[in-house]
Write a structure and sequence with these properties.
The chain is mainly β and 444 residues long. It contains 1 helix and 30 strands.
Length: 444
Amino acid sequence: MVLSRTPLAHRLATSILIVVLAASACGSDDVAIDPGTTPSVPTVEVGGQPEPTPAPAATPEPEASVSEPSADPAEPTAVPTADPEPAPLASITNLSGLDVELVEIASAETPIVMALHPDGSSLLVGGRAGTVRRYEATGDGSYAPDDGVLVDLVSETSTTLEQGLLGLAVAPDGRHLYVVHSTADGANRLVELDIDGNAEREVLVVEQPFANHNGGGLAFGPDGFLYYSLGDGGGAGDPLLTGQDTSDLLGSLVRIEPTAAGEAPYRVPADNPFISDSGRDELFLYGARNPWRFSFDRATGDLWVADVGQSAVEEINWLPARDGGGIGANLGWSLREGSLAFGGDEPANHTPPVFEYARDVGCSVIGGYVYRGPEPTLHGAYIYGDYCTGEIFGLVIDESGTVLDNQRLATVPGSQLASFGEGHDGEIFAVLLGGSILRLDVGA
């Protein structure tokens, strides 16, 4: 079907699920208790360190098991760009007059995230209840599920408030699949399976003190390492002060090489910024509240992180690969909410957002992708949306980070926008909890 880009006059509460998620995902927090590629950087084997133990208790992470990097390692480097001469951020300076339509290309049960199957044409769709299914291209621009469920974690997955299956990524070699889901006791559990959904192996368990701000996004970077977003643990106003605490994994992006090495379930890249420091070795950046979706620009390697705000602003962070791609960055929470003062003085190392919007525009940002598809009039624009309004926007910046344009492109029905996905050809898909996966089509 084709959906109009005219804003809805009335927003529909289509189910209790959508109402609960909308209330708990937003910054107001007035619910319950306020809830193939070989890396060029050497790695250190670890098994993780135990998290602090605020109630409720969750499965602890294994004790650290550290070994020296392999002999004659390469010099540690920052995150490399995808190309030594990266493409320009955008081939356009404004988005005025674009005719954008949303075309349904697949339907699923409470889809929340998608990834690309390594066969070059199929999609993998994760359902919030704990399933992953493969969708095959039909030849007419749409996708249909194949027989059976590829991954079934339903019996092990909690869907309380913002919990559920949260993240999905395929390894660069196309042989392994990584999934993050909420366990029965509310922890975030990262598991590895083979590409056919078999041979499950637990990689990392992170305790979550509350049932909101779980993060859970997964993506492999241009360096071949796995990046994993975690919220501040939940509650309103960062009650456990995890945002600026580098001794735990909450409120951060974690960066690991997830291959098992002996008894260690994963390795840590040797240039991660807090190795030999007081912080956790796995941390890549910190100071995030609830980073609900991040992505890498496939042309430049730049990292984009959307972070849901508390009560004033929603923020988008641009971390260019040429400057290290955000390695060691402090996004500011909970001393800052976006560029605004929140819990104290601005930290000296604060990396401010490239863009933010106030609560009269929306209340829960959904991070997307830089468009690198075949339509030149949208090339280089960062596509993102808002859960509460269902509106989809395009953001254009220049190489200095100056905003050139920000335009509403379309509106999804029922305010059910949960994620975006990127097609094999660079097209952008919108994933709706209500059951639809939509492609953004740009007219002449």
